[in-house]
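In the previous chapter we treated chains in isolation. Here, by contrast, the input contains two separate entities that must be folded as one system, with a combined length of 812 residues.
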Amino acid sequence: MISHLPILQVIVPLMAAPICLLLKRSQLVWLFSLFASAIAFIISVLLLQQVMTSGVISYELGGWEAPWGIEYRIDKLNAFLLLIISAISTVVLIAAQTSIEKEIPKEKHTLFYILYLLSLTGMLGIVSTGDAFNVFVFLEISSLSAYALIALGQDRRALWASYQYLIMGTIGATFILIGIGLMYQMTGTLNMQDLSQRLPEVAQTRTVFTAFAFVIVGVCLKLALFPLHLWLPNAYAYAPSIVTAFFAATATKVAIYLLIRFTFTVFGLSFSFTTLPLQGLFLLLGLTGIFVASSAAIYQNNVKHVFAYSSIAQVGYIIVGLSTSTITGLTATLLHLFNHALMKSAIFLALGAVVYRLGNVQLSSFNGLGRQMPLTMAAIVIGGLSLIGVPLTVGFVSKWYLLTALLEKGWWPVAILILLGSLLAVIYVWRIVEAAYFKKPLADSVPVKEAPLFFLIPIWLLITANIYFGIDTRLSLQVASAAAQSLFGVSP
Amino acid sequence: MKDLFAVVMLLGIYSLLSASFFVAMDAVDVAFTEAAVGAGISTLLMLVVITMTGRSEKTTRHKPWLALLVVVFTGGVLIYGTFDMPYFGIADAPIHSHVAPRYINESMKEIGIPNIVTSVLASYRAFDTFGEVVVIFTAGIGVMALLSVGRRPEEDEKTTAINDSMHEEYLVIRIVTKMLIPFILLYALYVQFHGDFGPGGGFQAGVIFAAAIILYTMLFGLTTARKVINQSFIQFIAAAGVLLYGCVGIVSMLNGANFFDYNVLASDPVAGQHLGILLIEWGVGCTVASVMIMIFFNFAGRREMQQNNEKVNNIEGDSL
């Protein structure tokens, strides 16, 4: 069975989804989804081990060899992403049943879990495949289920947010498809490995330039790079809390994976960053993104909006890391993928616990919450410190590597700007701390209890991971730098 | 154009034209799908939506110049991209010389069915097709999650009476349709099983099958149709289709080969390929048909609820 691990990674949650439709009972479906997701997590751990010791795993679907059939190709980068996605999905699911009890009507619980599993399947499928068209198919699965999940939010504005995301997401997916189509026309193949060998021959044609432009713009729409980020804040703010926690940690990461895969593997480093002006563009957009989104985050009154804008800013950091196009920069990017997933899922889960008790996440309702929900608020504070990049948290580690990469390149003005960006994060995190710990509760508010155990367990699991990986960076750093080196073609 | 009905009709015509365009380019399978899905069922679904939302577009004050600019720019880039394309139909274009020759030369030997398109989509790239089926399943679940109204309230006699009278007037259409439906269903089955030899397959068959049921629903009312096919039965079929498709892969895995390797399904590889393709096409057909019916039922259920509310209100208004 070990040789089938790559496909089982995707097939287990996929097959679990229709089975959920037959199970029907909400409690049972929850346990079953949790079980499926946990198996996916175990598989991803095994895959990562296997890849780290014995190198790239290739799996031919249907037994047809690569350019004719579809190939699953797991290297260090994929395995790392698979681990992030399935781990976050499993941890978040622990809190799901408690959270959706308050947020989603009872008869829709089963459908919620089916959509959740499908969206997990889609993301895992995008990451594992080595075939460009297969990416598109699984992108559709993950996006369609994402639109429906976001629209399930209890606020009526969720429908509008989901509609906006649907339009932008569909444009993104169509652009990616057009790009893949053009590449196929110029090379006659859809396999990524094969593409990377055949594209250089035709690299200097206008058709390939166009293909590149469409793929990059499409992916950037999906990853909410400034100025294509407009769909994100509302989608994250009005979606059910569980969905936000899951997507904030994984959905944009998958898009960033696609960006790395297309620029580094398919088109190749020199084409992406030297022939075409992607480096300057990414640096500029990344930096603007950090400042515009962080400043916007300061003025929000809905705390989910605050952290949604902060996610856009974090995408900015990741893109700046990419734009250095050095091994250290890419390592910083990959580290930040992992670390940001840990911070944001913890913060949004904690916000979910606040919604569970209070029914909303307006900043004014946070007044005095530090005393009423001490464990939940402490988690938000630690998550916030991690966002800022305080030492002993994971945020520090990735900022450190990002700064090292920038200084290595001699881009010290950029490094200073990055530090200034972190100061903006201090402001928006402080506003929440101030409300929770230094303000008196509103006169008419009802005192609330600490969040239920099913929230506290996953939240503190993630927070512990935030601190653990901030001190002991061996695992995350080793995998990230090995993945970065293999993308640059350097054997470790 | 402000009249949405006309917009939907134009979209249908557009799909039909592109279907004929595909025929002209010798892509009959694609044309068939486009005709069945684009011109057929999606037009129908959009019409149902129009009956709920009203026929004309609301006027908006802002002028979408920015959007127009973006669209023109994108179009410009696309045209720029065509300059270095290989000429249409040229024999040594990359798409004809790299992967395709093997499909054309070897598929008869390796898979043993004359329709190469079916060989590619059901065996060489079976996993993509599986993904597409899951996309359709996701769409069905998504629509259900958004539109299902939970337990339907017990219908009182007043509303059922209104429902019945609604359809009395179209007597000719009802009788003609009743006669046509068996033939449509039979044709769907023909398309389903003939996919190996000519254009067709699970997707088209599923859509045609669903169209027959939808036609029936439109003329005899949702309540009558629900008596024949109830919601949980449809859900079961939708899930079963995906599971059937996936299980074919799992069985080949248990037989010691890779996922979706049909060669090991029977003692002879070609027979195994036949069996595998037959089964997965069934899975596709089941899921597509039931999801289409499911989506239509959910839309129509919404609409009927809306209408009933209006009519009940009107009757109560009159009796006052």
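Chain B touches chain A through 58 residues (CB under 8 Å). Chain B has two domains: 1-85, 115-314. Compare these points with the single-chain example from earlier in the chapter.
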